[in-house]
């Protein structure tokens, strides 16, 4: 099978690695440059979307911020999974919030803001504190504002007014600020025949809006059940095919959906060594019409993102059950450059191994890990 992936980043790269044993070949389409590239070497293979669509058996995406015209062209090919409307639901927070409402899943109360009257309505109806998110193009906490105290109201509105004035396609979604205990996510797959398999809930730790550590270990059954019900409701509403990720806030054992990602997800990288079938293989199985693989937890596993660094001490490779993944990207401050997966036979052993890993990593590049170790 030949799969065309919209986007040429690390997720397309990891799909290519997972697809190889199944004889599924990936070509990656860079939507910004209109070129087709090899997902591992980034070597240019051609240009033009029409030709790439023609050559592909299946078309999918590694990210959601894709121009509408490209989504429509892919949809028209009849080969696009999970399809244009699912990708749009992940890429436009207005569409996403409407989807969550129609799927009947709990999420933060919100208000769409196009002008000052909407803003004032959001403040009076939802109350403070509030979080504001750009409707389009937001990721890693970018394009967000927070309003904690009434005294900041005018200056926060001014920043948002400037933002709205600069781009007429944009809007802002205001959300009630949720006082959550933890953030967790559920990554799962839905097949062409409607079969759903989900991985265990993963605990996520962010730093400055960017994922730093994900931890997968045996989870509370009630919480897992809640997440699975919500996952199934959203996936069915979208008639979804492929891997879907849902981020949740855990508020005293009640889950609220934060957002969805209609694709393989950073909080699912641990599945590369903590599950029999990783999220990348399961995504390809789903979109190619193959049976889904097991999503059961084989052993407790955590993932550490390598942000803005292009090297770590090679000696960490001496740690048993440690996997190091580089994405082959040019170094830039804060950029996702690679990740480390670490597994053990029990959560206690995983904590001990994590402590050993932290000792070997430069604290300057991973300042938050020590504190996270104590939260586990
Ligand atoms: P991602 O890279 O995960 O796609 P994003 O830029 O789309 O991120 P969100 O996940 O919506 O942004 O928000 C980033 C972080 O901000 C969340 O992980 C959470 O810590 C915090 N946050 C978002 N919405 C709320 C909310 N309503 N209440 C409290 N905290 C929130
Ligand atoms: Mg997001
Ligand atoms: Mg998020």
TrEMBL record:
This is N5-carboxyaminoimidazole ribonucleotide synthase. Belongs to the PurK/PurT family. The keyword Acetylation does not apply. Keywords: ATP-binding, Ligase, Nucleotide-binding, Purine biosynthesis, Signal. ATP binds at residues 93, 133, 138-144, 175-178, 183, 206, 258-259. One of its GO terms (molecular function) is 5-(carboxyamino)imidazole ribonucleotide synthase activity. Residues 1-18 form the signal peptide. Catalyzes the ATP-dependent conversion of 5-aminoimidazole ribonucleotide (AIR) and HCO(3)(-) to N5-carboxyaminoimidazole ribonucleotide (N5-CAIR). Catalyzes the ATP-dependent conversion of 5-aminoimidazole ribonucleotide (AIR) and HCO(3)- to N5-carboxyaminoimidazole ribonucleotide (N5-CAIR). Its EC number is 6.3.4.18. InterPro entries: ATP-grasp (IPR011761), ATP-grasp_carboxylate-amine (IPR003135), ATP_grasp_subdomain_1 (IPR013815), PreATP-grasp_dom_sf (IPR016185), PurK (IPR005875), PurK_C (IPR040686), PurT/PurK_preATP-grasp (IPR054350), Rudment_hybrid_motif (IPR011054). Homodimer. Pfam families: ATP-grasp, PurK_C, RS_preATP-grasp-like. It catalyses: 5-amino-1-(5-phospho-beta-D-ribosyl)imidazole + hydrogencarbonate + ATP = 5-carboxyamino-1-(5-phospho-D-ribosyl)imidazole + ADP + phosphate + 2 H(+). It is an enzyme of class 6 (ligase). PANTHER family: PHOSPHORIBOSYLAMINOIMIDAZOLE CARBOXYLASE, PURINE BIOSYNTHESIS PROTEIN 6/7, PUR6/7. Residues 97-288 form the ATP-grasp domain. The gene is purK. Pathway: Purine metabolism; IMP biosynthesis via de novo pathway; 5-amino-1-(5-phospho-D-ribosyl)imidazole-4-carboxylate from 5-amino-1-(5-phospho-D-ribosyl)imidazole (N5-CAIR route): step 1/2.
